[in-house]
Write a structure and sequence with these properties.
single chain; 38% strand; 5-stranded mixed β-sheet; L,D-transpeptidase catalytic domain-like; Immunoglobulin-like; 405 residues; 3 domains
Length: 405
């Protein structure tokens, strides 16, 4: 064989050996890369299938508008997990789509927060990597706050609604209502309804279809943080939660025509009490319909000027139980003793003797319904005048929900 042919064959063998060595080393180099996340497949194939995954996060930038979910998409590969957390470590939950191409947070980005997004991905060739992004949201220029009832841990009567009164107007009512979650221990049917509070502010109440079942445990989760109230309302910048329990089945029946108050517990009459209601024929008449005991206020000063009745009275009153925002109470009224059980002669309240009022005060709790009947009254308790939602039929109440419009 010629010397030239031998040298040529040697060069070919050397070239083949070098290529084989390169092929063996390539996967090892990929496994040791600082950008690869744990879990890279050992059989990952180099080439077009192993190109980096393109991850897109929205929103992006500084001081972006709040109130939108965080969205993460992947092109050229799959998302395996996504974590979105603010500077305090609070996370926005979400779930990767079945095809691995997208992720959307369950909650919205809140005002005045800095978020870090960590997206774990896998290429078409199987290589796992991690991508980080960050953005900040603009602070709220106006904040909407909420006053709610009942308080956490309370035991209330069978007519007690869940009631939220807002500091500022709520134009985006449907969006707000979607964030209010009610959980009960026995799947109680109920509905939210939007009304105007006696104060003139926007208010939303949740009441059951019928009175609560005693012993029901109720939880409100108002996931409002990051929700925009709409024009002139401002942002909600916190969540609200309360848990309470329904007490005994107590109904107070007030017959203004017979001047009797009857306490009924679990279907049985506990006691009948002679009373005197509002004076017929004018502004001092009582309300009728279902009023709900709002609060037990004890001994308070009652001044007629605060309810538009001039200087009719200004005195300290014992065993006071508020029934409406407009000033109707059940209370002790010893100055009216001669009228108890025979005529209505008050300025609109339901009065009784000191002894009966003290006993009755100890029996009832906020949330107990007062079912008031009588021919000469000044009308039915309005939904926003205390807790008057029970004076609407169930179908009427459902129509006040923003989600039914």
């Amino acid at each position: 064989m010629s010397r030239t042919r031998v040298l040529a064959q040697a060069r070919v063998r050397a070239t083949v050996a070098a290529a084989a060595t390169a092929a063996l080393l390539a996967p090892l180099a990929a496994c040791s890369s600082n950008t690869d996340a744990p879990g890279t497949r050992a059989d990952a194939k180099p080439g077009a299938d192993d190109r980096p995954v393109k991850v897109t996060v929205t929103p992006t930038g500084e001081r972006v508008p709040a109130g939108e979910p965080v969205r993460v998409t992947a092109a050229g590969g799959r998302l395996t997990s996504v974590t979105v957390a603010d500077a305090g470590g609070h996370k926005l939950a979400g779930e990767v789509a079945a095809d691995g191409r997208s992720w959307v947070s369950d909650r919205k980005a809140v005002p005045g927060a800095a978020y870090t997004v960590t997206a774990a991905t896998r290429t078409e060739g199987g290589t796992a990597k991690s991508t980080k992004a960050a953005f900040t949201t603009a602070p709220a220029d106006k904040v909407n706050k909420v006053d709610w009832r009942p308080g956490a841990g309370a035991t209330v009567g069978i007519a007690q609604p869940i009631s939220l009164v807002f500091d500022n107007p709520v134009k985006n009512r449907a969006e707000v209502e979607k964030q209010l979650k009610i959980t009960t221990s026995n799947d109680t049917e109920g509905s939210w309804g939007w009304i105007t509070d006696w104060s003139g502010r926007d208010r939303v109440d949740w009441r059951p279809k019928t009175y609560w079942k005693p012993g029901t445990e109720v939880t409100l989760n108002g996931e409002l943080n990051g929700t925009d109230s709409g024009a002139a309302g401002g942002w909600f910048v916190r969540d609200y939660t309360t848990t309470f329990t329904i007490g005994a089945q107590q109904i107070v029946k007030v017959d203004l025509d017979s001047h009797q108050l009857t306490l009924v517990r679990d279907g049985e009459t506990v006691r009948r009490i002679p009373v005197s209601g509002g004076t017929p024929g004018g502004d001092k008449r009582s309300w009728r319909g279902t009023a709900v005991l709002m609060a037990k206020e004890g001994t308070i000063n009652m001044n007629s000027e605060t309810v538009g009745l001039g200087d009719a009275y200004d005195k300290m009153v014992n065993s006071s139980m508020r029934l409406t925002w407009s000033g109707m109470y059940a209370h002790a009224a010893p100055w009216n003793a001669r009228y108890f059980g025979n005529s209505n002669h008050s300025s609109g309240c339901i009065g009784m003797s000191d002894a009966n009022a003290a006993w009755f005060y100890g029996q009832v709790r906020p949330g107990d319904p007062f079912e008031i009947t009588g021919k000469d009254t000044k009308g039915v308790v309005a939904p926003g005048n205390g807790f008057g939602a029970w004076n609407l039929s169930w179908s009427e109440w459902q129509q006040t929900s923003a989600l039914r419009k």
